[in-house]
Amino acid sequence: MTKLEELAEEEGFRTVDDLLSAYVIDSIAPGICINPSCGYCTEVEPDCRGGWCGECETQSVQSAFVLADVI
Ligand SMILES: [Zn+2]
């Protein structure tokens, strides 16, 4: 499972496409920490590539759109 799939599941969507279309008109997006051992999810800017992870205390949160290569 990719981080993007993990995030979609965490947010309650069946597929990645469902998640992306639900958020595409919004100014916020769901994000997930990309560190392999971490599953921290939070809301971030849609183009976020280095959001703060409260678990790892590193700038490792990326938005779903960045993970999907949409932005
Ligand atoms: Zn983390």
Largest sheet: 4 strands, antiparallel
Form type: globular
- What bound compounds does this protein have? zinc ion
Task: Record the strand order, biggest sheet.
Answer: 2-1-4-3
Q: What portion of residues is helical?
A: 25-40%
| Tally of separate domains | 1
Low-confidence stretches: none
Taken as a percent bin, the fraction of beta residues is 15-25%
Report Rg: 11 Å
Q: What is the count of DSSP helices, taking H or I runs of 4+ residues?
A: 3
Distance between the termini: 21 Å
- The count of β-strands is 4
User: Helix/strand-derived class?
Assistant: alpha+beta
What is the arithmetic mean of pLDDT?
A: 93
Q: What pattern of helices and strands is seen along the backbone?
A: HHEEEEH
Structure characterization notes:
It is built from 3 helices and 4 strands. By secondary structure, the protein is an alpha+beta fold. It has one domain (3-67). It has a 4-stranded antiparallel beta sheet with strand order 2-1-4-3. The longest helix is centred in the N-terminal third of the chain and has 8 residues, at 3-10. The structure holds zinc ion. Residues 33, 35, 38, 40, 53, 55-56, 60 line the site of zinc ion (ZN).
Q: What's the arrangement of secondary structure elements?
A:
Elements: H1 3-10, H2 16-23, E1 29-33, E2 41-44, E3 51-52, E4 59-63, H3 64-67
Antiparallel strand pairs: 1-2, 1-4, 3-4
Bound molecules: zinc ion.
Zinc ion (ZN) binds next to loops.
